């Protein structure tokens, strides 16, 4: 539905439908990726240059970042790519440190934290910002919490950083409702706690509720329509329909680049539980 409507796209459409239905798999449940989509030298730098051309040169406008992204299967891959892209992005790097603590049932014990700061800083969850948040002026970020829906500040909203202060970030909204695109907003430091099942201890982290948004997970990208998409499948998909969700984020099959491991031979895993699709017309 989000693809450009042209006769030459029909082949890409049919291929996507086969991926969604789990057709064309070999005995190892892998599917062949068209050669034109594969990064020729299996290099991260090539993938970055294909998706973010000239990222290291000069100021970019909001549209540049809104139209492109790199999708990965795991949060670890996303963090690695975001860090690599931030290094290439021009400007001075700012490191914003969180204030981490543990909320104990015995309130009197909260004054005597049983865990070291280093250990608390090392804890990560998909719903939490990093303890050491690295930013540069002009870089794209994504909001991790619903702050104020009436002002367009919802979980998943993409913004650009305009100014960095100790207690507040000045940002401009890039994505979401057209009423809010281009609006300047201020993001405060807030205290966040992950779901109980995410971490073994009741962590509280006071930090800006954002993450870098050069790259994101395939699952987080659902609903996005992009002009240029890179897919880092060095770590293959692992859940039902994940490959099908990632590939159609781009509005044209000619602007999709896939990074595979050289040993994969141009193939990647496609996880489809066909019993889920029984009785559906595809």
Protein model, in words:
The protein is 18% helix and 24% strand. The chain is an alpha+beta fold and 282 residues long. It has a domain at 1-89 and 214-282: Rossmann fold. The strands form five sheets. Strands 9-8-7-6-12 form a five-stranded antiparallel sheet. The longest helix is centred in the first third of the chain and has 14 residues, at 75-88. The mean pLDDT is 88.
Q: Return the structural class.
A: alpha+beta
The side-by-side strand order for the widest beta sheet comes to: 9-8-7-6-12
User: Share of helix among residues?
Assistant: 10-25%
Please identify which CATH superfamily of the domain at 1-89 and 214-282 we are dealing with: P-loop containing nucleotide triphosphate hydrolases
Outline of the structure:
The protein is α+β, with helices and mostly antiparallel strands.
Give the topology.
Layout: H1 10-21, E1 30-32, H2 44-51, H3 62-66, E2 68-72, H4 75-88, E3 94-97, E4 99-102, H5 117-122, E5 132-135, E6 140-143, E7 158-164, E8 168-173, E9 184-188, E10 190-192, E11 203-207, E12 210-212, E13 215-217, E14 228-232, H6 242-246, E15 256-259, E16 267-269
Descriptors:
alpha+beta; Rossmann fold; five-stranded antiparallel beta sheet; four-stranded parallel beta sheet; 18% helix
